[in-house]
Amino acid sequence: MKHLRHYIRNMLIAESARILNIDAMDIIRENGLVIVVDETTFSGMMEHIRIHLYQELDLERSSGLYVLPTQLPALGAISADQDPFWETKFEGNTWAVYQSRLRHDFRGKGVGALLYNVLLAQLSRGKHWLASDRESVSSDAMRIWDKWNKMPAIYDVDQMDMRPWGEEYFLTPETDDDVKQTSFYNNIGRYEGGRSDKGKYKERFLESGLTKRFQMKDPRSFLRDLEEYGILRYMDK
Predict the structure, then answer these.
(1) Stated pTM of the model
(2) Could you tell me how far CA 210 lies from the centroid of its own chain?
(3) Stretch 24-29: mean pLDDT, rounded?
């Protein structure tokens, strides 16, 4: 194990090491856990994707892939779908997180952030984008989005606008980039047209990771490294 850990540390450049949290990876492996990519709901066009955290012993194998246990809950999971982006220019290639959870004893150790990165990498591999939950985001998850926003060497970042309220538009006059920004409003308050602090509000809007969509620039290498470390599996379709 020490040899493999040393190999991965030497293999990764400094920026990539910030994504591949070795301590979180060790926690997963030392506890006999695996991250499972669930694409069984993909039929023709992607609609949902789920990333699970399971005890490896609880998984059943089928033709070299894995089948999730039906009676045992996952220790952690994060899911995304396309619904929030209908009737915008982001429709068809952008997903939003709609649910995430992690058992309390694995929180605060980088495991949750690793699950988020697996979700992003899996979507990015298909040239798709990921954004935060459009309704609400926990303080822990918000730190993940803000961190991605500050790492342009690792992530492609695309700014989204918001639906105007009290003014003709907020960032751009085009309406096809206006999306629901309730998660951002919940943290800073909704903008009302004509406010004297519009400049400061817009600055915070542009600084927030909650108003962006993201792609990982090298998702294949990220996923490959997790597979080589022995903690990533793919569910049988």
Answers:
(1) 0.86
(2) 11
(3) 93
